[in-house]
Amino acid sequence: MTKTRKRVLYGVLAVIGAAIAGACIYINSLMPIITGYAAKNLCSDVFVSDRSPADVLAIDLNFSFIKYTTNTVNFDEKSVTSHFLWGKSKAIYRKGFGVTLLKNIPEDKLRQSVYPSGCDPKYSQDTIKWPLGDIIPKINTGIDTLKLREITKRLITDNAYNGDAFAFMVIHKGIPVIEAYKPQFNRKTRFLSWSMAKSFINAMVGILVKQGKLDVMQPAGFDEWKGDERYKITINNLMQMQSGLKWNEDYGNRSDVTLMLHRESDMSHFALDRPIAYPAGTHWYYSSGATNIVSYLIRKQFTNDSSYYVFANNQLFNKIGTPDAVFEVDPSGTRIGSSYLYATARDYARFGLLFENDGVFNGERILPEDWVKYSTSVASASNGRYGAFFWLNRSKALPSAPEDMYACDGHDGQHIYILPTQELVVVILGYSPTFKGGMDTDRLLRDILTTL
Fold first, then answer.
1. Cα–Cα distance list, 189 to 82, 119, 192, 418 (Å)
2. C-alpha to C-alpha distance for 324 and 344, rounded to whole angstroms
3. CATH top-level class of 125-449
């Protein structure tokens, strides 16, 4: 072989070697995301939602690299360990806290934490009437229930609206008029919220505002932001997704949001440390990090964690008939406000009813007066799409729905649609991710509106 050919060969081998090394480095950076996603979600679906591992693997985890993970479910210690190539992640279930992905903290230390007592709702939902309880009155609200049943069959049984709906509820004039589930689910199943959890953080902030502990128009006031432009960021800026903090919300790759959820032990501080990219209040960009910052701000209002955890149960969940909801925490102990709430279809419907009734539930004012008006006021740079941790329809993104409709949305096809003029709350839960085409919720809402 001539010297020239050798040089060419060595050059080609060097390029191939560099490509292989680069690919290995990139795949290695994805390991916490791939194995963390599988371990966390499988563990929650099994031990919080009471689903079978086979069902979760076949539906929720059957995509991308995630479907190639090897997962071990330990029913004795209530944990899941997931492997992919040389990567490994473990998630554990703890009563009250839900599931936590182990990151930079010893498992035995986490297991020593005990969820505080004092969260008993002091009522049994099986023995009291809706909306606080589960005895649903038989009241004719004027809606066409026969047509609604046809729509429900098309949605749940036939998958005629695309996507995969696990559960469906419609509330009209405060009364459940339809409720349906895929065969493996029922009214006791806790479903993952994904980003619908952000709206629950909104409600917690509202309660603290009502108690005089927070003013959303004031700077968030974190010590970490003193001395730079971030100190001007208000709570309102964070809730309207206009903080100006640099953030990448792309779920399809190694981004800020995927790193936060699957690599970080303190998610709120990961988000707090982002640099400023735009002056506060001038640029709209969707950020799960902003919600986790607000979640940490809520935690800071309490002198101890027991009071922090009990607050959500006693001031929100128990008061709106959702005592069995589970709002998961990161390893540092802060609720993952961006993503990880587990609740039943009825729970999500009750939450929608709270907002439809202007913050009053079962005759008790839970949220401050005008809080719903604030929550549904347009974030200035959002082009009518967003309020304060709620999606809006002012831009008619869903053209068949009324302009005053607002919503809680999760990225895998979870929705609470609140239509105040029509006195409707529509809940859709399931697995309908956008990368698979998503669900045609506009057509579904259009059909529902024809039943009025």
1. 24, 20, 10, 22
2. 8
3. alpha beta
Q: For 290-327, what is each residue's pLDDT tens digit?
A: 999 999 999 999 999 999 999 999 999 999 999 999 99
User: What residue spans define the domains of the chain?
Assistant: 3-112, 125-449
d(CA 321, CA 351): 9
Answer yes or no: are the C-beta atoms of 393 and 406 closer than 8 Å. Answer: yes
Kindly report the number of other CB atoms within 10 A of residue 62's CB atom.
11
The CA distance from 327 to 338, in Å, is: 10
The residue to which tokens 């800071």 are assigned: 300
- The DSSP element (H or E) to which 27 belongs, if any, is helix 3-47
Residue 20 pLDDT class (50, 70, 90 cuts): very low
The pTM (predicted TM-score) of the whole model is: 0.94
Rounded Cα gap, residues 308 and 337, in angstroms:
14
CB proximity list for 367: less than 8 A, separation 6 or greater = 203, 206, 207, 210, 354, 355, 358, 359, 360
Lowest mean pLDDT segment, chosen from 15-29, 196-210, 371-385:
15-29
DSSP string, 175-186: EEEEEEE-TT--
Which two tokens mark 238?
A: 């964070």
Q: Residue 449: is it exposed, middle or buried by C-beta count within 10 angstroms (0-12/13-18/19+)?
A: middle
Listed residue (188, 305, 280, 163) closest to 230, CA to CA:
280
Cα–Cα distance, 75 to 390 (Å, whole number): 37
Q: List alpha helices for 127-285, DSSP H.
A: 145-152, 197-210, 235-239, 256-263, 267-272
DSSP-derived 3-state class of residue 170: strand
Residues in the chain: 452
Residues 152-187 have pLDDT tens digits of: 999 999 999 999 999 999 999 999 999 999 999 999
Strand order in the sheet with 79-84: 70-74, 79-84, 87-94, 98-101
The C-alpha angle 438, 443, 446, rounded to 5 degrees, equals 145
Distance CA 70, CA 369 (A): 51
What is the three-class DSSP state of 216? Answer: coil
Instruction: Answer yes or no: are the C-beta atoms of 201 and 336 closer than 8 Å.
Output: no
Q: Token pair of 100, please?
A: 């936590």
